[in-house]
Amino acid sequence: MHGVEKRLRVGSLPGEKLRGMKTTILLVAILSLLPIANISAAQTPPESIKRLRSPASVRGIIGGESHDSYVIHVRRGRVLTVRLSWRRQGENQAEFDVTRSANGNSEPVEFGKWSDDHKRWIGKVPKSGDYYVEVVAHPTAHYMLSVMVK
């Protein structure tokens, strides 16, 4: 009987170990996925940003608290020109900024000059990379954005 008791005790341990191992494996799997999700979210540009190639002309409708975002890759020393026009309706107003960051709160670049009552911007790019154009309007506007790199 002594051998049977031994088998029963040994037989019950693997079940407990198996449950503990399943819990541990599940916990490790969940915890290991969290950093991957955060990294991929930080590296993936928002789908709402539309990539442009020079020369580009795009039309859109924008207003309220939202903005339309565009990105274009420009090499150092090239001249970037951006123009914005919109259909006048009442007192509506549209404008844009050229920035180096994809978020809507970034500061405009520190180079370039405005003309035509802030409807045209031109600048010689000092550093290769992606440049973002963010269009806003109040209350709403049907607009056309033209972007060219020379």
What topology does this entry show?
Layout: H1 2-43, E1 49-51, E2 56-63, E3 68-74, E4 79-86, E5 93-99, E6 113-115, E7 120-124, E8 129-138, E9 140-149
Parallel strand pairs: 1-3
Antiparallel strand pairs: 2-9, 3-8, 4-7, 4-9, 5-8, 6-7
| Total discrete domains | 2
> How large is the radius of gyration?
28 Å
Q: Tell me about the biggest sheet?
A: 5 strands, antiparallel
* Poorly predicted regions: 36-45
Helix/strand-derived class?
A: alpha+beta
The proportion of residues in beta strands is 35-45%
Verbal overview:
By secondary structure, the chain is α+β, with helices and mostly antiparallel strands. It folds into two domains: 1-44; 49-149, Jelly Rolls (Sandwich). The chain has one helix at residues 2-43; strands spanning 49-51, 56-63, 68-74, 79-86, 93-99, 113-115, 120-124, 129-138, 140-149. A hairpin with a 4-residue loop joins strand 6 and strand 7.
What labels describe this entry?
single chain; five-stranded antiparallel beta sheet; four-stranded mixed beta sheet; alpha+beta; elongated; Jelly Rolls; 150 residues; 2 domains
Short description:
This protein is of the alpha+beta class. Helices cover 28% and strands 41% of the residues. It has a 5-stranded antiparallel β-sheet, with no helix packed on it. Strands 1-3-8-5 form a 4-stranded mixed β-sheet, with no helix packed on it.
